[in-house]
Amino acid sequence: MAVLRPPALLLALVVSELHCLPWFINISESQGPGSVLQSFSFNCTSHKPTLELVRVKPSTTFFNLPIPHGTVHLPQVTLSSSARLDALAVNHYELQLRLTCGKHVTEGPLYVDVHRDPDYSPCAGRFASPAGEIIQVRETVTPGAQLYTLLLPGLEPQRAQISINSTQDPPYFPGPFSINGQGWLLAPSQGLKGQAKKVFQLQILVTFGQNRSCHRMLKVKVLPAPSSQISFLGQAPNITVPEDLAPGSKVVQVRARGFNVRYEIVSPVPCPLFSIGQDGVIRTTAPLELAQARGAAVTRLQVKAYERLMPWAGVDLDLTVSVRSVNRWPPRCLPAMLVTEIPETTPVGTVLNTFTCADPDSPGSALDYELRFHSPPGPASLCLRDRALEVNATLDCDTPGVCFQHAASILVLDGGQPLMTTEVPVLVMVTPVNEFSPACVPHTFRIREDAGPYTLLGSVVGTDKDYPHNSIEYYVSSGPTAFSVDRLSGEVHLLGSLDYELQTLYKLTVLLTDHGQDQDPTHRRSGSCTITIEVEDVNDYAPECQPPFQELTVYAPLGRSVEVTKVSCWVPQEPQRLAFSYSIVGGNSQSRFSLRGPILVHDNIMLGPPWPEQPRTYELLIRVADAGPSIPHLSTTATVIVHLVPWSTSTVATRTHRATVPSMMTPLLVTDMEAFWQPEPWFVVVLTVTSALFLLALGWLFGKEAVLLRSALPSFPPIHLSSGTGRDYLFNTLTGARRWL
Question: Transmembrane residues, as ranges (predicted)?
Fold first, then answer.
């Protein structure tokens, strides 16, 4: 068990319990090197205790920890020779202490708060004592070497000026001492060789503030060269360490031959990066990050080894510590990820983003950039030029499978060992742009005038260069209301009825509007085309002949053709229809009649039998049909009854008459027309059914009245008819009643 016991008027410390830690002390910034900050007393039975200063935050060399001896120890935490406290710069330090007593190890912090001293003067401390400050140097000191630091914290903001105003005349002075702008007292340029055991008194004048100054004495005592046999063992002058060494790590251990040897770093002072222990081990006191610690790449150390009883009889060793860069961190990039959208009309050469990357291990070093494609693989529409991601080729979304997402990554490589890389994901989404307006080719459709509603005329086929190509809607912008266009398919349908006689041609303007072809759903384009609809004529009415029935008597001479009659037909509802075809469809036995257009002709050119000797009657059926381009061809039938009377003469007379008779004879036509009524078939059916129903109803009515009458008449005795007169009377009566019924 270890117990720390402070001397009188000091803080008591017991370290047997961990909850006794930490400790807090307050000191003034006016305290200079050698000042005792804290004293400890502890007793560690059966073991040799050790009290170590593990680390200081923030890192500094202002604090020393002497090593005690014996079983009772009074270690003290003091300010080192390089201590220059300044409350404005750092007002709080944390010293981590470690007490080891056998196997028991206890750690705890010692917090040191530095407060401002308004009366603190740069001439305070040992420098302000009447006897002045006494420093000891060896006669073997390097000419011009730093001997003492005069500039204390607080002088810089006051712009203090320090100078030596005492005389330094030879031969006592080998040369003048000097003070540089940093407040360092420097040895004469001639050195101090042969000046052993001399004491040089220097009057120092410090001027600061507004007409403020002070005079202080500084004595430099020159010690003879060491006569001891202390010397460094073989040690390599150059040491290389990696920059990732943690504070407190061992750099190198130096060893000197001598009795009770002590070590200290005499240059540089202060030494912020390295410290040396009494065992000669040089350790790091701060991170050696080359990116943060300026000047840490190469540090030249001057280590002094001396015997404890003869500190002036020391020997110096020059070491060069080089810090090797360690590639521990990959490059860091901004942005760390790129996700962007660009329209397909983005010009070639457009910069999408510029990547800024830096190597934390070596700021400012050059980095290599590589663009790697993932989807689609291989070179695409993007390229990387000098850290800038640009559009490399024309982007097009109007071809299927072209407008997609470009997935890539930018690989950033540093030049360190080992090689470290950073991959920046890149996702570029190309969005479609509605660039083109839809269009359609003017077209002509034909439709029969008797077509019914919803008849399909055809389809309007629109085209659009934007993808998808079939994203078109169709509308009727102007035109007749008898037609409609399907919004999605473009099919043209008939809505109403048509009449060729009223209108034969229609003009329909179809508006085409695209959709779904742009990132902005409201950005739409439109076009139009004109559709022509021609109405085809359809025969609505059959021809009518006037009269529809003719009966003629024709006297036909032998060997002559006679015009019988002319069939006169037309369509009353369509008077413009004049083309008809005529044909004999019945009654033309022996083909004695023919038609020349609408004219019926009797052909009698036969010279021999069978020439009819008696008049003969022919009932001819003539079919009259319209012969125009319209379909269907409707027809009607005209009836012509011809009573043919042969007209013959004697042979000689006939022959003579034929020779003299003119070529054309005018026959005598007798027309006999009879009027008759031919009811429609439906009328006959209706009349028959109505009469039958009427008779059935009448029979049912009289049958019911006869039953009522029989029940109402009184009962009569049976009548016996014996005579013929009575029987005749009864028979006549019943017969008359039946007729009446």
Answer: 682-702
* Amino acid type, 531: I
- What's the DSSP call for residue 13? B
Q: What is the pLDDT of residue 710?
A: 66
Residues of the chain with pLDDT under 70: 1-22, 42, 46, 66-74, 88, 118-132, 151-159, 208-212, 226-228, 312, 376-380, 400-403, 605-613, 628-632, 648-678, 707-741
Of the candidates 182, 226, 181, 222, the residue with the CA atom closest to the CA atom of residue 202: 222
Check residue 697 and report its DSSP letter.
H
Q: Does residue 235 contact residue 319 with C-beta atoms inside 8 Å?
A: yes
β-bridge partners, 439: 463
CA–CA separation, 557 vs 565, rounded Å? 16
Indicate the pairing of strand 310-324 with strand 133-138: unpaired
Quick one: tokens of 407? 């997935």
CA dist list (Å): 467 to 171, 432, 439, 517: 103, 8, 14, 6
Q: What are phi and psi of 173, to 5 degrees?
A: -95, 125
Measuring CA to CA, which residue among 313, 202, 334, 207 is closest to residue 262?
313
Tell me the CATH class for 332-431. mainly beta
Q: For domain 439-536, give its CATH number from 2.60.40.60, 3.40.50.10380, 1.10.357.10, 2.40.110.10.
A: 2.60.40.60
CATH of domain 23-113: 2.60.40.60
The rounded distance, in Å, linking the Cα atoms of 330 and 124 is 51
Collect all residues with Cβ–Cβ distance below 8 Å to 41 and sequence separation of at least 6: 4, 5, 6, 7, 10, 13, 72, 73, 74
Give dist(CA 382, CA 361) in Å, integer. 31
pLDDT value of position 426:
92
CATH superfamily of 544-646: Cadherins (2.60.40.60)
Counted residue by residue, the chain has a size of 741
444 alpha-carbon distance from chain centroid = 45
| CATH number for the segment(s) 231-324 | 2.60.40.60
Q: Per CATH, the architecture of 134-223 is what?
A: Sandwich (2.60)
For the entire predicted model, the pTM comes to 0.41
Distance CA 88, CA 90 (A): 6
Q: What is the C-alpha to C-alpha distance for residues 720 and 727, in angstroms, rounded to an integer?
A: 10
Angstrom distance (rounded) from CA 307 to CA 311: 6
Query: What is the per-residue pLDDT for 171?
Result: 84
Both ends of the chain: CA-CA distance in Å?
A: 156
Residues of the chain with CATH 2.60.40.60: 23-113, 134-223, 231-324, 332-431, 439-536, 544-646
Rounded to 5 degrees, φ, ψ at 521 are: -65, -20
